Structures are given as structure tokens and as C-alpha cells.
Amino acid sequence: MKKSLLVSSLSLVLAASTVLSTAGAASKTGTIVIRHTQLGEAKQQRLNILKDVLARVSKEVPGVKYKLDGVDSDVNRKEKLRSEMVVNKAPAIFDLFGGSDTQLYVEANRLLDLTPILKELGLSNKFISLNEFTVNGKIYGLPIGGYQEGYFYNKDYFKAHGLKVPTTLAELEKIAAAVKKDGKTPFAQASKAAWVPLMTANTLWSRYAGPDITNGFSTGKTKWNSAPMISAFTKYQEWVKKGYFKQGELGLDYAEQRNQLIRGEAVMMYDGSWASSVFADKAQAGDMTGKVGYFALPAVAGGKGNQTYVNGGFSNGYGFSAKVKNDKKQLAFVKSFIKNMYNDEMQIRGLEADGVLPSMKVSSTKLANAKVTPLVKEIIAVGNKASGAFPAFDSLVSADVNTALSEGIQKLIGGKVTPKAMLDAVQKAQNIANSDDDF
Amino acid sequence: MNKTLRKPWTYVLFLLPLLVLYIMFFIYPMISAAITSFMKWNGLTEPKFNGLTNYKHAYHDAKFWDAVLNNGKFILFSVFVQVPIILFFSLLISNVKKLKGLYKTAVFVPSVMSTAVIGILWSFIYEPDIGLFNLALTKIGLQPVMWLSDSQWAMFSILITNAWQWTGFYIVMVLAAILSIPREIDEAAIVDGAGAFTRATRITVPLIMPVISVVIMLSIAGAMKAADIIIVMTKGGPGGVTDVMATYLIKYGITNAKYGYGNSIGVLIFVFSLMLTALYQVLVARRVERVEY
Amino acid sequence: MTMTKNSLKRSIPHIVLFAFLILTLYPFLFVLFSSIKSDNQAIASNPFGFPASFHFENYREAWVNAKISVYFFNSLYISTLCSVVTILFSSMGAYAISRIRYLRISNVMYQAILIGLLIPGNALLLPIFIMLNKMEFFGHAVLGTHMALILPYTAGAIPFTVIILVAFMRSIPGEIEEASVMDGLSAKGIFSKIIMPITVPALVTVFIINFIGNWNEFLMANFFISSDNLRTLPVGMVGFRDIYNTNYAQMSAGIVFSILPVMIIYAVLQKQIIEGLTAGGVKG
């Protein structure tokens, strides 16, 4: 009787945990998990597209259960997927960034080689650019759309104050000064996540130091603390000091940025083309719906290299776990997913419903007939006028350099560091990352 | 002496489940952390032995020392700000005749909520435009403060939140100790003509030193563990000024894919905890006759 | 004269304490009021007062958008289960260490466990993560299930619990057991019939402290669990905040949902919780 205390208590725990582990493990046997980042109001359309695609896939590949798993984009990229990759437990299908992220995971054989699948589906030459997802000639991810970055602006305000879309940085600054004088914030910004202010900074430094400069950092050919880079960040700091950004914006979440524009307290906003859908939706943009225009960050007098390049590319999309190839059903599911997600119909739908620029070579007639908002047309027009595009810095530099730069820009905004000191620190991190006795 | 209490099998059986868990989740991870702390390892590909490089890097990284300093601020704030406040209010509550129960119940409320929810709640209170504090400040004609985004204020704001969460918890502990002091001691002092202040400082406080020591010990342990409140409120920002050792570990170990380096930070956290405990034993515990925790 | 002076003197502590209570409790009221205001604008224009109109749809939206009930029950059962198992194993171990006569081994064990108290849990986050990944429980992978939290939570509270319980059990006089041995009780019998009942106050104390610790735990829950349905309250709420971070009215409703059950439990059990917290461990 009494000795059973120990035994029974142990077996109770074991029994309890067995029940639990079976409950949790149900997801392992065949259920495909799709990690997406389409959360919140602004991304509702993109989520609908994903759901429709999955509905079709499950018709084509019956008997495979699937589950959607939504995680915030930045959290997924920097923590969730990172840690899952380490223990080789990434979902079968997941949101993936091209460039250094993809390279890191390919080195560890975590990503499914898509080259044969694309061939089989006849998609090999259908994408505009797969550069960021290509490692050693093989393709490991597929961009869901293209993006470019530029200034969104309040058209009514520009008209009412007789302001014109600037063609030089000096003109842009003149506008900013006028807006500031008027008691408004020139540039909407919310820098709790450092990639937000770094969008502006990235293009600014590419104007000052040339669109190619970012490519050279990881090879040592170019330096973060070179003179034109310092000029770019000095300009940025000047804007901060003049109060061109909202006070306290360092503590605000990214979504707050567009709200500053929507509420009318800010007049311009540097953001990616993905933000355009918000201004087409009455529920989100309110009175500002349809009243937002778009222009590229203008040319810098004396800047290096071509001044019409835009920050743009095809860096965000879906990747697939290498483990999928061991499971026929899962592989069939993934193939069907690629087939149903990456086609003209969905590309046009993404463009129409959400302003996502196509990542595939959609037939020009279909593209011309697509029902898009004037804002999206403006964005496309800006893209067509540009002589080229450079990818965002974070696909070109390693994670620790990104961290150093992220902390640096926040300190710069907070007035804690000079541009020179900040860039010296970034270069130091870059030197360590480039050297062999890396830690 | 007698056999019933000396059967080796009984001894082993009683200890076994404990030992298994302890070895699995303390001893083994500690050893594994210590070994990988000497390796260059991104967690993905094969690890490579790199000697003391990780530790050297930590030693030369100003950001790591900033993080250590922030843990220090946590400790100093709890010992020199929180503990006196806890003592003050415990004494105050113990001396009132009415509403004692209400005070005790009410101050404890924040302690039953999870830190993450508290972090969310306080981020709202600190919000620059519509947060409670800035609305109050602007109402009385003062300039709003950028609580979490101004590097001057960010760490302080987190410390306040942390204090708000735990003060009541410790008050309840200290209060129980005060109330367990035999009434006669206090009454004798009153007869001797000792005032309330004298009684508090000369009689009550010395008698409850053990529990104060426990509060300090728990505060230090809490300070070394602090991470969740920072992740929720600032993610270490702006520009890393609110990073503590644990968030630094995550930033470099996971986000930057440096597992070996992350583990060397883990080892350093352990070493610092050891040093703190030793220091605490010398400075505080020795003066207290009996420490339970 | 003296009467009023006396009563004034008596009410000063109450005034100070009431100010402290307001400081402690006002944030809750602020969130409660905000949760029924229409939007951020309404919060900003009337921050302290009662809302002009009631907007309970915030609650509906928060309920739909965040699986608060799922998160809550996950947290509740994991925290309870782990606290109970920790206490069970620790009290068995503490009994062996403090009452069974293998002094030298017991001393070594005790010192080893004492060191565990000095290891902050998050220092071992990475190795535990890697270890859990290799682990299987009855043929199922541990990582990605609740077991990945239950095991480290149960183990993590061991040093603290053992040390409290050893101290408590050592203070129990030895004569009690000797009498029981005479009565023919075995070691297990003494443990379950004699020692455990005496130890109840300490057990309640460690249960409460461990429960609060598990209830709060964020780092492991954040990294070891992926699927939304398995998330605990802290992680689920932070995920909810990350998505709806600009709609403070709805977020406030979410906060209210997440603290309401705790408040109710606390209101019902406050006496037991507060007394239990101090009954077993802290003896001035």
C-alpha cells in the first residue's frame, strides 16, 4: 500500500505527460505547418490569398492536413525561424528572406532545393529575379512579390501649400522645412524596430556613396566609415536635430508610422511599396484613402553613382524545409503550393487587392488590364523611371553587422552618438565578421 | 541506528526523480554550455574550437559591459530604493489598526499578474501620446517625457515597472515577519517611553533582518534573471541601452546566430551570480544570524 | 482638541497608504476605462475619466483576435502541474536529505543543489533548447509540445524548493519519527503519514512561489513553443500586442481578459495565498 505512493506518483506524472505529448505530437504525423507573417488588418488581403491557395492545394493533394501559424515578421525572421533552424524543426513551408538569411540556412542544408521543382512546373524562367534566393546556382526560395521604397506623401497638403514633388534632395529639404514651419512633422517614422529608420538611411547612403557600396562591405572593398557614408548619416542626423521626425518615435511600433500620415500630423513617409494597400482601404486610412502619392528619394547633388536607382528587389517570400523531400505526400503538397501560389492569377490578384508588385513575368496585357489604384500606378511608374535597383542592406550583410547598425541608428536618433563614431562601430563589427578569427 | 531509516534502496528511490531532473536540466546543460563556450558555432553547421576567443570578445565588447551594468542597476535599485520603500510601507501597515487586510490584499495584486502582461500594460502607460503619464504631465503644463524611447529614461522606466510589480509581494512577506514579533517586546518598549520611530528602527527592523535579507536575496536573483520585462517593453532598445545580460545573450546567441558565443555569455552570467552570492554572504548574510533561503 | 489631534495623527498613515494604493491600482483602472473607449483619440481626449460612450465591441474583437481562453488554460494547467510535480519530487528528495541517515552523501547532494540556486535559468536557455530537441518522450519529440515547458519548469524550481523544504524538515524533531518506527511504520510511511502533513505550510509557500514563477515564465515559452494553440498567456499576449499594437482600446480589452481570471482566483483565495506565502518559509 505505502510503497505505492512513489510508484503511483511517478506513474501519474508519466501518464499526464504521455497524454500531453501525444496531444502535441499529433501535428507531427502528416500535418503540414505553414508559417506566415500575414497578421493584422493591413495584411488581411494577403492572408486571404494564402488561404485560397491552400484550399486549392488541399483539393489537389487530399488527405494532407495543414495548419496556418502566423508570427510577426520581425520576430519570425530574427528569433523564431532562427531558433527552429538550429534544431532543424522549421515548419514545412515558411516565410523566408533572401540574401544572408537564405545563405546561412543553405550552408546547413536546411532548405529544400527548388531547382528541379521549378523545372518540372515550367517556372524556371518565370521569375523576374531569383538572385536573392540563389546560392551556388540553386534556388531555395521564391519571392512572393517585388517591393520598392520611396516617399508616400499627403497630396492634398502638397496642393494646398503649393508644394511640388522634389527632384533633388535640396528641394526635399525645402519642403521639410516648410512643413516643419507649418507645425507638422515632415517625415512620419516609428523606429522601435531599427529596420524602419534604416530604410531611409539605406537609400540616403546609396545616393551619397553609390548604389553598389553595400555590396562591398562584406568583402572589405568598401567601408562603412568612408567619407560619403559619413555624409549620408550626417544628413540623417541633421534631419533628426531639426525635428523632421516626431519626438519619441524611437519607442513607436512600425504600424504607428503610417498612422502619423493618416492622421495628418505628418506629411511624408518613407516606406516600402507594401504599405500602399493601407491607403486604399477606407477602414484603415479613413479620410486619407486615395489621397496619397508616391515619389522616389530624389537625387543628391554631388552624390556618387547613378542617382535614380531605387531600393527594391524580390527578397521576401516562401522557403521550404529540406525535410519535405523525405515525405512523398509533403513534397506533393509543396509542389502544389508552388503551382497554385506562383502564377499569373495570384500575382495579378496580389497587385489588385493589395498593391504587391509582381515578382513574376506576368503577361503585359494582363498587367495593363489589372485594376490597380492610382497610387500603385505611381509606384510602378517610379520603378519604370529608375535606371536600376539595389537590394536592401539586410540581405547583404551578416546578422551581427545588422545588429550593430540597428543599435547605431537608434543611438544616432537618440542623440547618443556622432555619425562617425556610429559608423566606426559598424565597421568594427564588419571587420570581425569578415576576418577568419571570427567568434 | 535503526534499520528503517537506513535502507539504501529507500534512500535512492526517494532521491532518484529529483536527481534525474536536476542532472538533466542543471548539470548537463551547464557542462554543455561550458564546452561550447570555447567554440565558434552558429548552431547550424559543425562547431569549431576557438579557445578563449568568445570570452575575449565579450571582454572587449562595451555593449556587453553596458548590459552587465544594467543588471547592476536592477540590483542597486531594488536594494537601495525598493527595500526602504517596502520597509516603510510594511511598518506603516503593521501599525494601523483598521483596514490592515485591505491594504495587504490590494498591494499584492500586481504580483499575481504575469510579467509579460504587466510589460504590455506599462508600455501603454508610457506611450508618448496617449499614455497615462504623458497625459498627466501635459495636463499640469509640463513637457511630455519619452519614457521608453529616450535613452536617459528607458532603463529607469523599466525599473519602475519592475518595482511596481514586486513591491507588494515583498511587503506581504515583510509584514508577516513584523506581525509575528511577540507583542510584549513592543509593549515593553512603549512602557520604556520609546517613540514609534525608535521602536521601528531599534526593535522591529533588527528583528526582521532575516526576512529583509531574504528579500534582498530574492531581488538579486530576480535582477539576474530579468529579461522578459525588457523583451516585452523595449527589446533592449533604443540602441541597446536597456539590454541586460540575458537579452544580450538572446540577441547574439539567437538573432546573430552565434551559439558558442551565447553560451559563453551564459557561463559569464553564472560566474557573476556566484560572485554576487559570495559578496552578499560577506556583506549581508554574515550579520544576520539565520538565513532561511 | 486632543481628540482631533489624535485622530489626525491616526489618519495620516491611512492617507499615505491610500495614496500608495491608488498608485498601485490606478493602472488597472486606466486600462479598464480605456478598454471601453472607442479609439486612441477617445483615450487621449479623456484619459482619466469614465468613458462617454461604452464600446464593448473591443472585447469581442480582442476575444476573436487573440485566443486568450486557450492561452489562459495552457498557462493554468502547466503552472499547476509543474508546481505540484516539483513539490512532490523535491519533498521526497528533501526527506531523504534531511531525515535519512546518510550524512555525507546528503551533504554533498545539498551543496550540489545549492549551486543550482545560483544558476539563473535563462543562462542555460541555449543548451536546454538543444537538449530538448534531441529528447523523445514515449516516442514523441518533446520540442514543440507542452512537455518542452513542463520538464524545464519542473526541474527549474527544484533547487529553491529543496532548500526551503530541507530547512523546514530539519526543524522537525527526530523523536516523532522514532516513535513512528516503534509503531512499525516504514520510511515511506513516515514520509507520507508524518512528515508530509507537518510540512504542509512550507509546501503551500513553495507552491505559491513556484506557481507565480511558472505563470510568469516567458523566455522558454517564447522559444520552445511554436504553435499558437500551445502558447501560454505571456507569449500569447505579447504576440497579440505585436499585431494590434496601435489599437490601444482593443489591446486594453485583451489585457482585461487576461487579468480578469487571475483577479477572480485571487479574490476568492487571497487569504490562503497571502497567508500561505508567508506561513512556511519566512520565520522571523
TrEMBL record, chain A:
Signal peptide residue numbers: 1-25
Assigned keywords, A-Z: Signal, Transport
Gene3D superfamilies attached to this UniProt entry: Periplasmic binding protein-like II
Keyword Secreted attributed: no
One Pfam family of this chain: SBP_bac_1
Transport as UniProt keyword: yes
Assigned protein family: Belongs to the bacterial solute-binding protein 1 family.
Protein name: Extracellular solute-binding protein
From TrEMBL, chain B:
Transmembrane segments: 12-31, 74-93, 105-125, 163-182, 203-224, 265-285
Domain ABC transmembrane type-1 per the UniProt entry, residue ranges: 68-280
Principal location listed in the UniProt entry: membrane
Keyword Cell membrane: yes
Keywords noted in UniProt: Cell membrane, Membrane, Transmembrane, Transmembrane helix, Transport
Entry's localization field: Cell membrane
Pfam families: BPD_transp_1
Membrane topology listed for this record: Multi-pass membrane protein
GO cellular component terms, semicolon-separated: plasma membrane
Gene3D superfamilies: MetI-like
Alphabetical list of InterPro entries matching this protein: ABC_transporter_permease, MetI-like, MetI-like_sf
UniProt GO BP: transmembrane transport
Top-level taxon of the source organism: Bacteria
Similarity comment: Belongs to the binding-protein-dependent transport system permease family.
PANTHER family to which the protein is assigned, alphabetical: ABC TRANSPORTER PERMEASE PROTEIN, INNER MEMBRANE ABC TRANSPORTER PERMEASE PROTEIN YCJO
Protein's recorded name: ABC transporter permease subunit
